[in-house]
Fold Phosphatidate cytidylyltransferase.
Amino acid sequence: MKQRIVTGVIAAAAFLPIVLYGGVPFIVLVFLMSAAAVLETLKMRGIRAMSLPGLASVLLSFLLLMPSSIAQGWQDAGYGKMELTFIFVLLLLVYTVLSKNRFTFDEAAFCVLVPLYIGFGFSYMIETREEGIAFVFFALLVTWASDSGAYFVGRSIGKRKLWPEISPNKTVAGFFGGIGSAVIVAVIFLFILDFEASAVWVLLATAFLSVAGQIGDLAESALKRHYNVKDSGSLLPGHGGILDRTDSWLFVFPLLHMLQLL
C-alpha cells in the first residue's frame, strides 16, 4: 500500500500540472500514454515493440489520436482517419503473406483492434481538454470516485461477487457504491460546470459513465486473465502499467461526448 501511495502522489504531481497547462505538452503526454498502453497490450500477445506489427500499431494509435485541428489537412485531401486506418489494415494483411503466415491473421486483427481501442479512447481525452479543463476533471473525478466507491463499499459490505470469472474481488455492492459515489461528484459539478444538458440528464448520464468505467476495468481484467498476466506493465510500481490506470478512461471520455454532456 505504501508503494501505491508514493507512486500515486508522484504520478499525480507530474500528470496534473500538464493537464492544467494543456496545449502541446498535454497532447505529447497523451501520445506517450497511448504508446505505452499499446505496447503493454501487444506484449501480452507476445508481439514485440521493435517489430513491424508493433511499430504499425503504435503509428495507427498516433493517427487516431490526432486532434481534429491537425488532421483537418489530411481530411481535406480525402484521407480521413478511416481511409488511413484501412491502409494500415491492408499493410498488416500483406505482412501475413510476406511472413509466410508466421505473422497470422489473428495477430493482424489484434494489431488493429488494440490501437482502435486505445487510440480512439485517448483521442477523446484530447478533444475534452480542448472543450475546457473542467470537463477533463469532471471525467477523471467521476472515474476515480467510482473506483474508490466500488472499492470501499465492496470491502465494507460486499458479499455477492459481481463477476468472479473475470475479477474475483469485485462485488455487486461495490458496483452500486461506485455509481453512488460518481453521482455525488456530479451533483457537486452541477454547481461548477455549465452543462449543455439538464441536471436530471447529467445525473443519469453520470451513472451510465460510472457503469461504463467499471466495464472498462472489467474488459481489461478479461484481457489480462486471457493472457494470464497480473498487470499490463510495471511502469507504475504498485499500480501496474499505464493501461491498468487508464482502462476506465478509455470508456468514459468517448461516452462523455456521445452522451452530449459537453
Remarks:
- The radius of gyration is 19 Å.
- DSSP finds eleven helices and two strands in the chain.
- The first helix runs from residue 2 to 21.
